[in-house]
Amino acid sequence: MRFVIVTGLSGAGKTEATRSLEDLGYFCVDNLPPTLIPKFAEACLQSDGKIDKVALVIDIRGGIFFDDLFESLKYLKDNEFKYEILFLDAADEILVKRFKESRRSHPLSPDGRVITGIENERKKLRELKDRADNIVDTSKYAIKDLREKLNLSYGTGKEVDRSLSITVLSFGFKYGIPMDADLVFDVRFIPNPFYIPELKPFSGSDEPVKNYVLSQAETTGFLTRLEDMLKFLIPNYVREGKRQLIIAIGCTGGRHRSVAIATETNNLLNTKGFKSTIEHRDIDEDAHRGAKKL
Fold first, then answer.
1. 247: annotated binding-site residue?
2. In 186-216, which residue ranges form alpha helices assigned H by DSSP?
3. Which intervals hold domain RapZ-like N-terminal (predicted)?
């Protein structure tokens, strides 16, 4: 049985995550008092296989009952009941914006500032986040993006338990390091096409920039060492039961060098038989911000 505990910051997308899991055939229970988790888990086991995928949403709405969560998790572990924790997070400014748009107050600060509630909630959830098997930062995710990510991690039943889903993510350091990254590589040491007038308008997905970046001796040396590292790391991650790996590759703006190298890395992984997808987080970020200013 796949037993997922869905938790995280208020406003980070737990409701949408629950809907996605329901669509994937999970039996979902929202805001179950943590003290009831052991009894619920035992009831599921006694269903003769009729309930094989379960998702419990547990968060600070449980109030005084929330403190019972770790005791319940200890009970599950002591009784060799396998579970996994999905933790949804988002940047503070994004959470504040979402609360303001929805005109909701924060559960930990109903009569005060939303940011105060967020700060208190982060402290309260810190240990739970440290225990999480899968952390998803929804700051830049549209609903469809979150659904796709959850489908990738939870949509293929037992098959996903035996495989590792890899996302190679390009980004710009000036927009922040991706919160859900497992491995972060800085490629700002490679000559920058941004300063070459005829290359500046293009991105790392275009042949002129791609050829320029990949032709650099620094790039060749980096990719050779990165391939060796991933050959070593990935089988060990699989053996330890890791289901998702986010490889983040960053340059200054996330448009030229990181895009070209992330694409090459993704192609390499697929060539080697790994299940890898590519995502360019900031490839058009400068253009979007320029349009907003206009």
1. no
2. 207-214
3. 1-155
